[in-house]
């Protein structure tokens, strides 16, 4: 299995989509001799699906076609060399995956055919068991449906622990602590901007373009900062480096 789970698509001041992870992604594309990818763009709301595909073509140097152009989206996923899942609104994305019958085709492509899955922000969220740890608003009336479950632990992308002056609502840490209190058997991996988890075969690595760590939230346990994947060894069925 090949998963790139990125917290976000671009860093501040960066013009290229997936630029901070470009070297790792292109190395994988070269190793697997991948020349094209199918984009699942349904999280995109304030741009167009084709504009997002064009951005990815420019950044990654491969042919990228949005799945909405295919008469049979499920068959497009079944034939894909690589699957790209865009950021945007997680609720809309997950609902569309279910309504268009793409959940099982994506799962089979990744698990059975070893098709690489590259997802950022919302695309990272839906790779986990559920979207309950998304930061997004349910902008349409959406049920909390299961997500793809390719990665076994909940992730919170765009994690930030800054305290904004004048903000009287709950901090991100408090929100994630609430999740763990309601779901005491589950953990949440909090990924800062410019960071990602990379699963290749049976190996899991953590990467941060800024040299920053990630956090693991558990019920009634101290939340700490970690800088490699070793801390995840008890949570995931991968060799963690």
Automatic annotation (TrEMBL):
Keyword field contains ATP-binding: no
CDD domains assigned to the protein according to its UniProt record, in alphabetical order: GAT1_Peptidase_E
Keywords: Hydrolase, Protease, Serine protease
Pfam families per UniProt: Peptidase_S51
GO terms for MF: serine-type peptidase activity
GO biological process: proteolysis
Protein family membership: Belongs to the peptidase S51 family.
Protein name: Dipeptidase E
